[in-house]
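Design a sequence for this backbone.
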């Protein structure tokens, strides 16, 4: 019998804050302003890992342009 491994598709705002080593308030602000994309599922926000990557790439790109 094989065991299926289910990969996580999305994360909570708190989990993304931990990933980025940001505070929860800062992460919530980034989500609310659209800096980090998210979807609302019921009363909760969920963020795809791809969207976190897009945010990081954009920040790095902007930092490179400013240097």
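Sequence:
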């Amino acid at each position: 019998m094989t065991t299926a491994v289910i990969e996580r598709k999305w994360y909570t705002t708190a989990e993304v804050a931990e990933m980025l080593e940001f505070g929860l308030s800062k992460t919530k602000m980034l989500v609310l302003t659209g800096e980090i994309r998210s979807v609302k599922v019921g009363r909760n926000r969920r963020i795809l890992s791809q969207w976190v990557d897009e945010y990081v790439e954009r920040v790095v790109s902007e930092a490179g342009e400013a240097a």
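The CA atoms of residues 26 and 67 lie 24 Å apart.
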